[in-house]
């Protein structure tokens, strides 16, 4: 059901496939979307170039916040740790991978919550997915429900009941193929997006990390070619 026109919402915009699809969904539902991205000490910043391009094309306001999580490390995305490559689905379904950034979604959602309350809205969108993903604990429905409950205890609007917080997760139960199909229906330009954990200096995806493999699998299952650039031989 479409929401009230021009109702504000905050969207975590990573520059990837999922968040770009969520942006299109939120706009189709009548939200005035405000994007937030993070320069958090990640191993490459091409995702921020993509996020800015996506925001510009969608005509939304967009901020990039600096939070240097590389000072903590603990992840292949924020420390000098090799990104796993060419893992099969069984390996991806095993232990939480080293590409998990400690408490990243909790940090990001907390910032989005602050931004939302400042904008006088309780609506926050995030592209987490519990099916075709890498096993991160902060992408599950029970985590999102717990954060939403906390947010309504931690904010002025939540406590007073004037601005209840809702964390929207429209992709939570979709496969990558279903996400891509939905995005194509809404006109998402996936050529502007990047999902790779370890692209080259030009921004071409490696095609071998977990994120690339899940993305490529999604496009295959959707019967489509991925328009994003990949390194030679992929």
Tertiary shape = globular
Question: Could you describe the largest sheet, including whether it forms a barrel?
Answer: 5 strands, parallel
Helical proportion, percent range: 25-40%
Radius of gyration, taken over Cα atoms and rounded to an integer in Å = 17 Å
Oligomer: single chain
> From the helix content, strand content and strand pairing, which structural class follows?
alpha/beta
Describe the 3D structure:
This protein is α/β, with parallel strands linked by helices and 234 residues long. The chain has eight helices and five strands, in the order E-H-E-H-E-H-H-E-H-H-E-H-H. A five-stranded parallel sheet has the order 3-2-1-4-5, sandwiched between helices. Helix 2 (46-58) links the parallel strand 2 and strand 3. Helix 1 (17-28) packs across helix 7 and helix 7 (176-185) packs across helix 8 (210-222). It is globular and about 55 Å long.
Short précis:
With 234 residues, the chain is α/β, with parallel strands linked by helices. The protein contains eight helices and five strands; from the N terminus they run E-H-E-H-E-H-H-E-H-H-E-H-H.
Keywords:
234 residues, alpha/beta, Rossmann fold, 5-stranded parallel beta sheet, 8 helices
Task: List the topology elements.
Layout: E1 7-12, H1 17-28, E2 31-39, H2 46-58, E3 61-66, H3 89-92, H4 104-118, E4 123-125, H5 141-154, H6 156-160, E5 166-168, H7 176-185, H8 210-222
Parallel strand pairs: 1-2, 1-4, 2-3, 4-5
